[in-house]
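Troubleshooting entry. Yesterday's outputs looked truncated, so today I'm pasting the complete records for two proteins to confirm everything comes through intact. If either block looks cut off, that's the bug. Protein one:
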Amino acid sequence: MSAKQEQWGSNFGFVMAMIASAVGLGSIWRFPYIVGTNGGSAFIILYIFLIIVVGIIGMSVEIALGRNSGVDAIDAYTKHAPRSKILGYMGILTGFILMSIYSVLGAWVLHYVMQSLLFNVTNLPSNHFDHFTQSYEPSFWQLLFILMSSAIVSAGVTKGIEKYSSLINIILLVLIIIVTIRSVTLPGAMEGIEYLLKPDFAKLTDSNVWLMAIGHAFFSLSLGAGAAITFGCYVKKETNIIKSSAITGFTTLGMALLMGFAIFPAVFAAGAKPDSGPGLLFEVLPHVFANIKGGSIFAILFFVATFLAALTSTFSMIESLIVRIMTVTKASRVKVTWSLTAILIVISLPMSLSYNLLSDFVLFDRNLMGNVEFLIDKILMPLNSIILLIIAGWFWKSKGVLQELSNNGSIHLPVQHLILWSIRLVLPLFILIILLKPLFEYITSQ
């Protein structure tokens, strides 16, 4: 069985699946705490710029490569650069490893969903999150989260991913809007709104903030992890790739900003610190909800929405490798999915154990999970995207990437030469400079 045997039921379903892949914990869990530790709205300005300039074009190229291949992510590499198979595997394995991190975050969210449903999450002690992550309980929720994700993916594209993505996106949007409206109407919320709207322009010259911004752009859109290429394999020939990528990119931006307005006004209203780091969502918000009338209800809504976002984001991470193995072995989707699930469980458990059994493993002031996250979103994902841009721009014969993006000329592409040279040279160099500048500054400062 190959990717050729399945297609998206509609362009709407494809866009919904792409949005579900992009709008996940990157927008809900990661975006708020990174904003809080990297200059507030200054970081947001950089993030918006990078999504538009790098993200949308990068996603369009990945989808175009996938559709042109029609098989899987590896074929998208080797069809135009025959010796690049190992680079293709690096891309899809990046997504698979990223799933191991997401499973930990999904475990945390599942715990808080159950706490909010069965008990009262607003009454949790301030150190609950630390005690929870330092116990072995997250491993149980991690296992459950992986099994839930695999069950949906095993159902296939139209019956699983497309069907559930469309439904979950709508539920997610409604729930987050409800929480946002309540947050911005709290007494003292204006300070949080100002925090999001008044930039510290000095941060715009900080190369580390640029690195965090581009890393988050790749993380939030799942670029360089094989996801967009694999989803592109199912795209119909008449689909407008650039339009679909733009909708996905701007929706991701919108949801991230919406989360900013859902969290920071409430954080400031409660007198909490915006730079609380990765624990912002889990440590601060339960106590924020405790100071809100009907807070227990809003807590349930919020954590359910976060769980749905985490779940839908994982579909694309495992799908790329599933399709490759199906293509090579001709095995069924169900068999491949559950075989990979067993492997995923094994490599994911050390991530949750980073906070207890393996907590002594520290490198560069980061635990095991922190180092794996750094490796993925600040090194592998950007490098994979650079490689894909070079393959599309230089190895795809007769400017084929423009033909694919324009549906063989049926869609008008303005400034084609600018688009082509952005793919070939401008974007790869731009990404590389952002990656290397902090390293160069560190070396020259020694």
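Protein two, checking that the full record survives here as well:
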Amino acid sequence: MKTYVCGHRNPDVDSAMSAYALADLRRRTGSENVEAICAGRMPDKARWVFDHFGLEPLTSRRDVYVRAKDLIDPHVPVIDGAAPLSESLRQLETSGESSLPVRDASDGMFLGMLSPVKLLGLFLAKSDLTLPTAKAPLFREGVVLSENDRVYDIRRTAVRDAHNHFPVVSDTGVLRGTILKRAFAEEPPYRMILVDHNETAQGIPGVDEIPIIEVVDHHRISFAPTREPIRYMADAVGSTCTLVTRLYRAAGLRPTKEIAGVLIAGIVADTLLFQSPTTTAEDRTTCAWLEKICGEKAVDIMKGLSQVDSPLVSMPPEQAVLSDAKCYNEGGRKFLLAQIEESNFALFHQHQEELSAALEKIIAAQGLDFAALMVTDPLYGNSELLYRGSERVRRMLPYRLGGSGTFLMPGVLSRKKQLLPAILAAVS
């Protein structure tokens, strides 16, 4: 069974790196078919890390919804429409199935289902059983599924249908295979490990339809109950990569040189090279241990990350806001907090009007009460906040309004530990 390891939506460096490293650890400790994926577009800084260490970047996925193509049974035969009917009937008998799908021999198009009941009239008429199966009476009265249909949407219809076999076709009608009815009552064909988040609302779309078997995170706990016991590691450290490294050491394993570099990148990116108030002693000692394996200094990796183009330059305004954004639902209010690292506040002010419009657009599209973008200078340890939405919350913010129309936040670096508590106090 496939297991995906995935960070939160709008992934950052720590989210992507911790997923990559934990997937490697799980494979090395005996788990099979484990793959790290990225929830949406890979951030440029994360892509730089993979390129720098010569590693294949994570596969980006928009969702993990279970779809019809995921339930196709590879053991159910497909009948060639050009085969003699007698041969197809023997294939049907050998399979033990009540019906089998028939496809066109030339283009693979679905022709219908071959069933003995439908052929009864031919037998009574003593028809020629050497004719091609495609010329025989085939039935298409049952449910035909598209390969991209969500199982959640089709399950009830399929279970209530009188037939036990459901052909699955592509958007152009090409036969992909068959789903047996019993598959709709079985567990989904893959499982999920969450890193750098534990709230399914912040996870990749579809994660709430899949069994979650493990969580590794350093945020507040808002995890829903599970049917079975799971692995759960949460601790108040500055980076999820610190916790993944802890798991390597607990297993008596050392990451490879490249993965040690990946883990360092996640730690320095999330702790802003140990300047963030979320930084702990363990983050520092972990980085020192990984430096010995990697052969590179954390400060040099941070320099490389800082040279990657700012999202303010490389992305459209709305995409820049959403590149590292998290949604919250607290105190009866739904809101979004985004963060961008940028040492050049002049560049931020230059794009402020477009970013304000992007926040307004996001508020309308997502039905939010308010949204805010925190632009952080990790070198000097300051941030500015661009806010749009609820005036009541705006008045309660504990920050001074600057001349450019943004809130000045000296010494504020952490969205989780500094901005979010201030916002929660304002909405309470």
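Both blocks look complete. Sanity check on protein two: The domain at 70-182 is CATH 3.10.580.10 (CBS-domain).
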